[in-house]
Amino acid sequence: MKIAFIIQRYGTEILGGSEYHCRLIAERMAVRHQVDVLTTCAREYTTWKNEYPEGIDRVRGVNVRRFPNARTRDLEAFNTLSDWIFNYPHSREDELRWLEEQGPWCPALLEYLQRSHQPYDVLIFFTYLYAPTVLGMQIAPAKSILVPTAHDEPAIHLGIYRELFAAANAVAFNTESEKAFLQQTFDIRTIVEETVGCGVDLLDTDGQGKPRRGVDAPLEGPLVPEDEQPVPQTQKEGVARGRRGRGPRPERPVADRKRGIGEAFRRRHRLFGRVALYGGRIDPGKGCEELFEYFSTYRETGGDATLALMGAKLMPIPETPWIRFAGMLPEAERLQALDAADVVVVPSPLESLSLLALEAMAMGTPVLCNARADVLVEHCRRSNAGLYYADRDEFAEALSLLMADDGLRGAMGRNGRDYVQANYRWDVILGKYDRLVGGLTGSGAPAARVPAPAR
After folding, report:
1. Is 208 within the bounds of a domain?
2. Which of 60, 74, 319, 366 qualifies as a cystine partner to 412, CB 3.0-4.6 A?
3. What are phi and psi of 323, to 5 degrees?
4. Is 25 helix (H, G, I), strand (E, B) or coil?
5. What is the predicted pLDDT for the residue at 261?
6. Residue 63's CATH number
7. What span, in angstroms and rounded, lies between the C-alpha atoms of 325 and 267?
8. Which residues contact 20 (CB under 8 A, 6 or more apart)?
């Protein structure tokens, strides 16, 4: 089959978010199909400035066609327009103007899609929010799949998005939480839909449960029995009073701290003792400002862990000895960081999947998540591999509990690995895409294999 992915920006330098998600799916599907990615020349999303060269590129085995944006974004003017359009009556034309101001505004991409969509069997649009999806989905809806990567934010309640979801014939949801939110918000009448998510690249691709690229020993033994699960079912009733809310410790002995590929990361960044890790954009919108405040409270109330940060710095970082900034890391070192951490913190209040949480679980590291993100709460409850917090005091209490209890972290680590193995192996994910494509096109989709992408 010939498949086109349409995404606002694309490249190996873009880590996290829907762009990273799209790239992982495209690379895997390119092993079995003829795949093109149609995208803009932008590398950075705040301005959409053209930085990649226009034309055809080859990125990790995938053909990438880049088109130049017609304009950059004036962020201050756009924020002013957003404040108005989210709070006052307006017309559909106002929303279309807002869509153009938001960017990326790339008529050349849409013109190519209008002119050349016929040879493609399927068009897969990533992220509901941007103009390439909103306008591109109108070109050939009968063979288009929408991957919304959506969460509850002011923009999603605009009328242009009601039109988008009402017209979608096929939708690939990330999680059941995202699906429930979208079905409650929109009149969705799909021909075919699946709750898909994304494969986690840290796992072996043979589907046999053997970790690869430095992930330490394969899973052993069953999950902790249900009556001994360490994660309470309701946050207010359990985590805030975690020392009374959890069940007994598992009998299996657990080492004080897992010793694996993370030791190199600890040595390199002079990390001693307990470590909490955050990875991704260091940005107030990802919950980082609140993370710094809450972690300060944890320290002030007796916590002694260090907070390590990896990713792009888009806001000031407090100058304090208990925060270490590792910067943008290559893949191998990212794996080391996830393994080095005792706990991975996911502070974002707006998530549709959270590959950070899933990658941490795959490495056997428990997570501590923002309870305002329903998707993160869903992961914690279904996996019993993490805790979640609703406020500053719950954050400090839950992090203290996790850092103090080796048995709890060990049980959660095993649970997380089992959860990822059961739900986010690549053969599971590709099988769901096969069903989506087959249901949309009426073709008998081939059985999913688990190929590794080109390097």
Report:
1. no
2. 366
3. -120, 130
4. helix
5. 84
6. 3.40.50.2000
7. 14
8. 14, 355
Quick: pLDDT tens for 6-37.
999 999 988 778 999 999 999 999 999 999 99
Give yes or no: residues 173 and 315 share one domain.
no
Note the pTM of the prediction, 2 decimals.
Answer: 0.79
State whether 331 and 188 are in the same domain: no
The domain of 397 spans: 226-423
DSSP β-ladder status, 122-126 and 2-6: parallel
Q: From CA 28, how far away is CA 16, in angstroms rounded?
A: 17
85 pLDDT above the threshold of 50: yes
Same-domain status, 415 and 271: yes
- For residues 451 and 28, the answer to whether their CB atoms sit within 8 Å is yes
pLDDT of residue 366 exceeding 60:
yes
Rounded to an integer, the average pLDDT of 82-88 is 97
Count structural domains, the chain: 2
* Cβ-contact 408, 249 below 8 angstroms: yes
CB atoms within 10 A of CB 88: 8
Report pLDDT digits (tens) over 130-178: 999 999 999 999 999 999 999 999 999 999 999 999 999 999 999 999 9
The token duo for 14 is: 């873009």
The answer for residues whose C-beta is within 8 angstroms of residue 320's C-beta and 6 or more apart is: 296
- Do 75 and 50 lie in one domain? The reply is yes
SS3 label, residue 154: helix
Distances in Å between the Cα of 167 and the Cα atoms of 34, 146, 154 are: 26, 10, 21
Is 8 a member of any domain?
yes
